[in-house]
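Chain A, query sequence.
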Amino acid sequence: MILSRKQQYALSALSGLLLSLAWPVRGFPGLLFIGWVPLLWVESYLLENKDSYRRWAAFRPAFIAFGVWNILTTWWIWNSTPWGGVMAVFFNTLFMSVVFSLFHMSRRTIRKGKNFAWLIIPYWLAWEYLHLNWDLSWPWLNLGNGFASYVKWIQWYEYTGTLGGTLWVLAANLMIIRFIKHIKEKSATVTGLLIIGCIIAICIGAPLGWSFYRYNHYSEQGKNMEVVVVQPNIDPWTEQYTLPVNEVFRRNITQAENLIDEKVDLLVCPESALQESIWLNNPYNSISIQLLKDYVSRHPHLTLVMGASTFRYYNPGEKLPSSVRKFADGSGYYDAYNTAFIVDTSPNLGYYHKSKLVPGPEKLPLPALTRPFQEIAFNLGGTVGTLGISPERTVFRHAGTGAKFNAAICYESVYGEFMNGFIRNGSQLICVITNDGWWGHTAGHRQHMSFSSLRAIETRRCVARSANTGISCFVNQRGDILQPLPYWTSGAIRSTLYLNKELTFYVKYGDYLGRIASLITALFLLLTLTVALGGHREMKS
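Chain A, predicted structure.
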């Protein structure tokens, strides 16, 4: 069978469309099991006819497939930052296409490459693992995230994390394309088809069956505490930076007044709720902090979590971190933070600075390359640069109940192994504070909300999620979304959440699948390079 370039590109676009139609929260993730088949079919055709195509022939089909997928699922970034949206889509598509091309080149180069279709599994797992950990991180489309809205399918993420879902998807696609190819073979037999069909059924069905069983028999673990979550619905475009301090405080706190009593232990408000310039050198000079301390003095049983933009100036002679910025008048240096404040009746404030930063708006990626641009900005009196971070995954303790909890800020909730750090440090309850209003009423806020279900299953921790404009909700230890507040509305919700202290296999060992895949990928890339260089020398001689 001959595939023209138009047919190759059409099949590639079909892969991108199928992957997009599978994506949460309104997609059907079962399409992930066939989403890669058209693209893998094109790659196989290029391999079988490698004498007619160059080594990088798989790049264009891959770029089309992954471009369609990225555009249709993450176009909403444009609402926040048009340039950032274009860059996110372009570079994510580019990186994915390069990884797929490297997989194809390895198959071309290694002897009997047709037998190495399975290499896509370690190559892609290694890519997703890298994408979770490097400076240009944007793992929104890691394949395992695609099941976020179907929690009954993925209860086994407590053992593998989302990379287990990626392995599941790729293995199923490889088996299905093998089944299709076997049908086309002249030597195909009914027995052979039945065997491959049974393997496919087991590959997809066994994890599903175990997951349904685990979901139906799982009981939430630990003592409980009463938690209230607030959704103030402050427009980030028109109100967040202009409202008076007292009005911001009122919108957050009054939402919860009817739900607060002596049984409530924790009140959770969203990211960046406080936009007063709070200097950590003298935080009690802030009106916002004074209002919060006064409020908890009238509710001594209560601990309050609220996001803020904070700063710290450095005295002459102090060691300056790499994230430091220069005052516009050149008089000194300071750090800016995206902070979660923990306020109770104790004399000290607890706080945690967001540490998994968004490339671009919050962090200059690859500092060795971008640091000169930051220095130019400093010299011009600018304030661009990287936010300061907390070096540890800080866990807080409720003074009355002894319950341990953490406050993850926005983008951090996308990262499984990163969130494990809070759990290993003793957290029994995850608080997610975020502001998803920048994206408007698009799929972005719904996708972000669904990822909290992944963290709940991986860690078997309840989640209290406070989003400025929504969707605020609770998530139980099975990953079910409870009491979601509609987007772009104000309100508050209350629930009894369980405080689990047991560590899941995934919390203990993290993304071990990614580390194993990275080792395998490194070995095969080295083998590919060695064989390619050897062949080049033979041709020259």
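The chain has two domains: 5-217+514-540, 223-308+342-358+392-509. The longest helix spans residues 512-540.
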